[in-house]
Design goal:
The chain is of the alpha+beta class and 705 residues long.
């Protein structure tokens, strides 16, 4: 019977509903194709010299496995660590800074304090620009947005000549109070584009229209620093996808966990600094909702870094400020501050490729340097000479070479053991197995310590949380890190090896704006606030609607408030529907309720300030339904056995290993055991048991002590 035209059209639309998510990490590029009964995934080595090629390689693999053509894909969603790496490794453009006359030293003065006042040998954060590359123009706008001194462009020609002599390629413009009145910044950009059309120009009034000059200046500088690199990469990727037959749009994941258009991402690449890791936090939050977990911590350990994020009530913690490349590990204030909407997480150099070495004091150290994908760990056989965490895990027996990276990377146990013996064992007087155990223990403690610091900074603890582990190395180290943190439950979701890419598929198309409009509650200007929120809504909706045909968008509005004279604000959520008629009194009431909840008291007889306003427009997401537990418990048959060296007891263990594809709902496994899949391995430590729930997640619980 012939297929009708309508049926053919429905089939075509069904095929085009399939989307591809791509996450570029420091070592691997992960790809996930949705559609059908399950995801099709792939993990390929990142091509650091030309990241576009690694993306195309992974996409080719999943399309071939799913038997679909590029034209049948409805969208490509992409997250990457390239922006972060460019900032950390200082591989961006030669940037210049232009500000108001008399304020040349905004960046140099910073916060007028040291992040460690007792360290006489303190390393200052690298803020991307030296004083020699800072210039000023005559102009002045006051704190109400009124022009006190008109912009004088007569000196611009001489300034540009000086910038040419310094080799400036990208210019950051940050004038005083331009967040209220951007006209002078806009005039400067217009003139510079005529005189230096090849330059990239970033305006603070567009990238970070908020109070606090130093933070705004740093955010503008960071955007200008990576803009030429990221815009070139994004447009090259878009063109490369079109060349191989993709007709669908390309979306980019932002640091806040949403997705946006290539045009917006290329203009404001600073919003991509946590692009890749944010997808993992989104995925962990979805798992927490499905499992009905009120307090969780996402644990994403890849080849280069480990990322941890607190998830409360099914929502990852968020922030408006982020520090890049801290000079002092874990010390707040020692990095480059940027003010962007971001999922709040801590990230350290602890991954499978983290290099192990013995320092001058005969101490075993891990990272932060990573072998990456080129040359990679010694066991890859690609020229790596320094032992890594992956080499240690292989030597201890935790990794089965036959299953590693879907069989695309051949591992050499002999080469890994030889490197560990020579560079660790001989220097510390240890045999190979104890040396490998030391490497493994050290990286686990580094990650546990980072988690403790992150929890303390947020006034919480880890022991009452469930760990959601993913990434290429996360499931392998999760139970051992959990033991150090006192965590009793660990969940390894489906397709954990490409967790961030899976999270991208759940992310809404969204755009977030923050605007500063200062006022006291006692002098509340309702007309000005309503106009500001209307303008923000128009701008945010325009960005989101550029990437979707759906006009049914959700919105989230906030006010950032504090008692007069305080240094920091708290966030007050406004109604999703119509705004209150008497907005000022309503905001004051909500502020005091929230302040009481956080601090246990209010401050009487003190006026309240509103510093900034926030607006988020996003596409609607499906509500998660808490899953039911498995109906029946059964005991699966192991695929085989492996010999592990369990350093805690200084002895070898013969443990069963299972293929995850054979484990259905209700399967129960007693540790110690290994659960192997194509992109990662889950270690069930001796103190844990594992079960498979109704959604296919591996749930590991620690025995009662």
């Amino acid at each position: 019977m012939p297929i009708s035209r309508r049926t053919k059209e429905l089939l075509r639309l069904k095929r085009q509903s399939r989307r591809i998510a791509v996450d570029i990490g420091g070592t691997f590029t992960d790809v996930a194709l949705e559609g059908g009964e399950s995801l099709v995934t792939a993990k390929t080595l990142t091509t650091s010299e030309n990241p576009v090629q690694g993306v195309l390689d992974g996409i080719e693999i999943v399309c071939e496995q799913a038997s679909i053509e590029p034209g049948q894909v409805g969208g490509v969603i992409h997250g990457t660590t390239l922006a972060t790496n460019a900032l950390i490794e200082r591989k961006g453009a030669s940037v210049g800074f232009l500000t108001t006359e008399g304020f040349r030293d905004i960046v140099e003065i910073a916060y007028e304090r040291r992040y460690d006042q007792y360290d006489i040998g303190i390393d200052k954060p690298d803020l991307l620009v030296t004083r020699e590359r800072c210039w000023t123009v005559p102009e002045r706008i006051n704190a109400k947005g009124n022009v006190l001194k008109e912009l004088n462009l007569s000196s611009l020609d001489n300034l540009l000549v000086s910038m040419d002599a310094e080799g400036v390629q990208s210019l950051a413009i940050c004038l005083l109070h331009s967040y209220l009145n951007p006209s002078h910044e806009q005039k400067l950009r217009e003139q510079i584009r005529q005189l230096r059309p090849q330059w990239s120009v970033t305006l603070s009034s567009e990238v970070c229209p908020e109070i606090r000059e130093f933070d705004r200046a740093c955010t503008t500088l960071a955007n200008a620093y990576i803009k030429p690199l990221m815009s070139t990469y994004l447009y090259n990727l878009e063109l490369a996808l079109k060349d191989i037959g993709f007709t669908c749009p390309l979306f980019i994941v932002t640091s806040g966990g949403g997705i946006t258009t290539v045009k917006t991402a290329a203009e404001f690449p600073i919003r991509l600094v946590e692009s890749g890791p944010s997808g993992g936090a989104v995925m962990a939050a979805k798992v927490a909702k499905l499992c009905g977990i009120p307090r969780a911590v996402s644990f994403d350990m890849g080849g280069t870094t480990a990322k941890l994020c607190l998830v409360d009530g099914g929502t990852p913690q968020r922030s408006r400020q982020f520090e890049i490349g801290r000079a002092a590990r874990f010390v707040k204030g020692s990095g480059l501050p940027v003010r962007i909407p971001v999922i709040d997480m801590i990230e350290i150099g602890a991954g499978g490729g983290s290099v192990a070495h013995v320092d001058g004091l005969d101490r075993l150290r891990i990272g932060p340097h990573s072998a990456g994908s080129e040359p990679g760990p010694v066991c890859y056989g690609r020229g790596g000479q320094s032992p890594t965490v992956t080499d240690a895990d292989l030597t201890l027996g935790f990794i089965d070479p036959d299953y590693f990276a879907e069989g695309r990377v051949t591992l050499s146990e002999e080469a890994a053991a030889a490197a560990i013996k020579k560079q660790i064992g001989e220097k510390l007087g240890l045999n190979v197995r104890n040396s490998a155990y030391g490497v493994s223990q050290m990286v686990n403690e580094n990650m546990a310590n980072a988690a403790r610091v992150h929890a303390v900074e947020h006034g919480t603890e880890m022991s009452n949380r469930t760990m959601i582990a993913f990434g290429g190395n996360g499931p392998l180290h999760a139970t051992r890190v959990a033991e150090k943190l006192g965590i009793n439950e660990v969940i390894v979701p489906v397709d954990p090896g490409v967790g961030s890419a899976v999270g991208f598929l759940s992310a809404p198309i969204s755009y977030e704006l923050i605007r500063s409009l200062y006022m006291l509650i006692s002098q509340f200007d309702e007309k000005a606030v309503r106009q500001l929120l209307a303008d923000m809504e128009k701008e945010a909706r325009a960005v989101v609607l550029a990437g979707t045909k759906s006009g049914n968008l959700m919105r989230h509005r906030t006010a950032f408030m504090r008692y007069e004279g305080q240094g920091h604000e708290i966030e007050i959520t406004m109604p999703d529907g119509a705004l209150p008629r008497k907005m000022g009194p309503w905001l004051f009431q909500q502020f005091e309720k929230e302040y009481q909840r956080i601090f246990g008291r209010t401050v009487p007889n003190v006026n309240v300030e509103i510093m900034s306003w926030g607006y988020v427009a996003m596409t609607a997401t499906k509500d998660s339904v808490v899953m039911k537990s498995a109906k029946k418990t059964w005991w699966p048959k192991p695929k085989g056995i492996r010999k592990l060296f369990w350093g805690q007891n200084r002895k070898s263990l013969i443990v069963p290993f299972y293929e995850r594809t054979s484990l259905k709902s209700g399967a129960k496994i007693v540790g110690p055991a290994l659960i192997i899949e194509s992109q990662t391995t889950t270690l069930v430590s001796p103190s844990f048991d594992a079960t498979v729930d109704a959604s296919g997640n591996i749930v590991m619980r620690q025995h009662a002590r």
